[in-house]
Design the sequence.
């Protein structure tokens, strides 16, 4: 758990910019999530009430990929979005954390396919939520 929090804490605050195509819509026709080539197939960039802000991609020395961004949306809503995408992509539930301001969900794949592991961590910061997506960072 300490190792996971260390892996999550470092990229949580690193941020840059993003673009993508429409995938899921709200009633007002504004995209809720958009496709982004930095994410594996089956995963989208959650947009919340406005476009995701300061999106950054990194590859840690241990392997895998980490995507961080900030968005105006409730943390629980973001977590449910990525939990549904992970399960639809063939990952099974492996763990969950609810530590007040920090929520996370982790999934793992049995058998063939990628990603083999996925984790989402959401840190509530006033109206914004800082999101960290991790693909194949843990074994």
Sequence:
């Amino acid at each position: 758990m300490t190792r996971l929090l260390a892996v999550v804490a470092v990229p949580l605050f690193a941020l840059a910019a993003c673009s993508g195509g429409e995938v899921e819509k709200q009633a007002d026709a504004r995209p809720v999530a958009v496709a982004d080539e930095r994410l594996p197939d089956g995963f989208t960039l959650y947009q919340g009430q406005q476009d995701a802000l300061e999106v950054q991609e990194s590859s840690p020395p241990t392997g895998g990929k980490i995507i961080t961004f900030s968005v105006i949306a409730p943390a629980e809503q973001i977590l449910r979005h990525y939990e549904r995408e992970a399960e639809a992509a063939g990952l099974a539930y492996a763990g969950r954390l609810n530590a007040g301001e920090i929520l996370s969900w982790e999934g793992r794949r049995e058998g063939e396919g990628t990603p083999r592991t996925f984790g989402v961590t959401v840190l509530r910061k006033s109206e914004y939520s800082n999101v960290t997506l991790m693909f194949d960072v843990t074994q």
